[in-house]
Amino acid sequence: MDDVTRPEPAIRLLDLGISFSGRTVFSSVSCEIAKAGPTVIAGRSGCGKTTLLRTINRLNDGIAGCVVTGEVVAHLGGTGVRVYAGDIPVEELRRRAGMVFQTPNVLPVSVEKNLLLPLRLACGITGGEAIRRLETALREAHLWDEVKDRLRRPAEDLSGGQRQRLCLARILALQPDILLLDEPTASLDYKAAGRIEDLILELSKKFAVVMVSHSLRQTRRLAARILIFREEGGLADIPVETAKNPETFFQVMEEML
Amino acid sequence: MFAGCAFLAALAVAFIFCFLAWFSLPLFSGGRLAPLFTWVWNPMQNQFGILPMAVSSLMLAATAMLGAYPAAVGLCFFMHGLGPSRLAGPLMSLVRFMTAVPTVAYGFVAAILLTPLLRQTFASGTGYCWLAASMALSVLILPTITLIVDGRFSNIAPGLRTTGEALGLSRSQILLHLVLPQSRRALIAAAALGFGRAAGDAVIALMLSGNAARVPHSPLDSMRVLAAHIALVLATDSQSEAYASLFACGLLLFAVIIAVNAVLRLLDRESSGGPGSRG
Question: Which residues contact B149 (CB under 8 A, 6 or more apart)?
């Protein structure tokens, strides 16, 4: 495709590397991730998938001894921003590149405060606008019907799947450009995981979704693009067509990992 | 095992209360109690009013808390995100070390360094006053409050920090709006223990407050608190009416500390009760 007509990638990793107190987790990773997705990152445990995800929204910055080399360019708010050159305040970056973790990390407050508190503190949005965003986000996360009568109940009373959808809704209320999902179904049962997967497919039509997954079944089901974090370093593409045949897919994965 | 220890501790407290109540019993007969709740302590004139000491105890504990409590909470904020993480460890070691310093050492250092400074700065009095005692007492109770609040912060702050940072909150917002509200019980416990320690301390007050048995009208005035009063009278007397009044002092001190604990617990129950209150 011609460069002029090609859409701006949602994320560009430019010779990216990270180390903690001198121990290198990965180095020289370069890759472009399109908005159309979801893009699923797979790889062996401990190879740095989660660290890569957290490098995109600078969530590793607070860890002592963390040194990042290279650059991440993220397409946020209609423009490409250099994440590590400080083109954007780190708080705004994290709001626009929202992250959902393996274990649902609801705040120990009510369901509604889980959405209203970040809205007020991160965006300065209160009152009617905040309520509108709350309802829209809960509907988008397919949670509204289940919680509309218990918005003031503790979020911790929700089931695991509901809590994870609440975490997604909390991110959606902040109107992000990119969703970073770190094994979002890892702590859920099959049925709850299925609902989250449906939701991810739906959200990927609106947002750039980058997801880490350990499940080959899930990767086959969701991925519009599969990136493998290779043991010798670097990301490698696996053609999505390969994933259509489970046997070939598993064989290719085994070889690449 | 913990239940057993808690039971033993409760038993010890009950025993102390019964001991005080038993020895105070004679005061409750023959109209001997009323003269104690007056404003003049002058044993030579048979005046045994302990109210100045009671009021002074409350005033000193309150002002010591006024200095120590915000400082301790601020220190916890600094160690849990507002300050550079490399300073958190050394600061915590310093706070732990402070708990091991004998009270008399604080009193001694303050008597040598602080009282002359106050005397010169304000050009008034001897420097042995409410302000001197209050400042030294603040330093004494600071580690107690810090350790309790830090214990809670250490438990919840790392998880809330990751969540908050991923939502685009700043470190101060995370501490102020996520960590602090979730630490209500620890904050109340720290206030109760800090106040109890300040109200019950005898050595700092004895060494620095000047020990005049009257209610101070200025921070530079001398004062005498109940605990110091007990120590002073006990050192010179064991027979007279003044000695007998000490049991009322002990009982009063005990009652004040229990009352403060009860009020704080009540506040805790009120603020945590009711549906949706966690929100």
Answer: B72, B73, B76, B183, B186, B187, B190
